[in-house]
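lol forgot to send this yesterday, sorry. struct tokens for the thing we talked abt
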């Protein structure tokens, strides 16, 4: 009988061993949860930055489209017609640039709306993105175009800026 009791005692866990095991498992689970949380946050951040980069490039393409339309117009307007110096807003639903309201900072710019996967200012639900297009003429045959996408994420202001030079085709 004594042998049986000794075997039983040697197989049992002490309360200290149980607490230590629970502590180690808890630390492991919390570490895994923290890693997953960081991955989700980084994924959202990278997704926002990618969308902002596409919206910035789209802003350049809008200005380029206006320039190309002017250049190909048989009525022969100046190549930079409608592309004056200043800060502008634009989307592909419009064929021209719209003057920024107010001082053209984050609080005065309009939110781009998303409708069916397309961004515009006229229909859909507000996205978190705002776009500012700045045009600076540099001589008679060159425009410097800056497009800045602004948004807020996790209480922080974020932005991406793209710059391109557009030229008259002579």
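and heres what i got for the seq, position by position
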């Amino acid at each position: 009988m004594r042998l049986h009791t000794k075997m039983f005692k040697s197989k049992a866990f002490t309360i200290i061993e149980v607490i230590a095991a629970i502590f180690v498992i808890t630390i492991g689970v919390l570490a895994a949860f923290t890693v997953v949380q960081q991955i989700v946050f980084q994924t959202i951040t990278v997704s926002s930055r990618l969308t902002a980069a596409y919206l910035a490039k789209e802003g350049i393409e809008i200005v380029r489209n206006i320039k190309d339309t002017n250049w190909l117009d048989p009525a022969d307007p100046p190549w930079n017609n409608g592309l004056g110096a200043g800060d502008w807003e634009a989307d592909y639903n419009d064929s021209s640039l719209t003057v920024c309201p107010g001082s053209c900072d984050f609080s005065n710019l309009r939110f781009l709306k998303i409708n069916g996967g397309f961004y515009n200012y006229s229909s859909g639900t507000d996205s978190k993105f705002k776009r500012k297009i700045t045009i600076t003429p540099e001589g008679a045959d060159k425009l410097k175009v800056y497009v800045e996408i602004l948004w807020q994420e996790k209480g922080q202001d974020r932005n991406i800026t793209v710059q391109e030079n557009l030229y008259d085709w002579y």
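The longest strand covers residues 125-137. anyway ping me if u want another try
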